């Protein structure tokens, strides 16, 4: 059974969920985690399973937008 909410009541996302959000593969998400390319606060490990805190992930993505994605703003 996969957890739906974290300690703060926010939703947890699976690597598949994150891959869909970012339009990439699940393997690419796992590689990002292995390489430390996303902050540790986003990643929640439960045994061998990996989850992502949805609110933290969305905040991190918003803070790390590039000018090409935001139209130079």
Textual characterization of the structure:
The protein has one domain. α1 crosses α2. About 45% of the residues lie in helices and about 15% in strands. The longest helix is centred in the middle third of the chain and has 10 residues, at about 25-35. The chain has four helices and three strands. It has about 70 residues and is α+β, with helices and mostly antiparallel strands. Strands 1-3-2 form a three-stranded antiparallel β-sheet.
N→C terminal distance: 42 Å
H/E series, N to C? EHHEEHH
List the uncertain runs: none
Integer-rounded radius of gyration: 13 Å
Domain count: 1
Strand order of the main beta sheet, please? 1-3-2
Instruction: Tell me about the largest β-sheet.
Output: 3 strands, antiparallel
Principal-axis shape equals globular
Strand content: 15-25%
Tally the helices: what do you get? 4
Structural class: alpha+beta
Mean pLDDT: 84
How many strands appear in the DSSP assignment?
Answer: 3
Residues in helices, as a percent range: 40-55%
Characteristics of this structure?
single chain, 73 residues, alpha+beta, 4 helices, 3 strands
What is the element layout, followed by pairings?
Layout: E1 12-13, H1 15-22, H2 26-35, E2 43-46, E3 49-53, H3 54-63, H4 67-70
Antiparallel strand pairs: 1-3, 2-3
Helix pairs in contact: 1-2
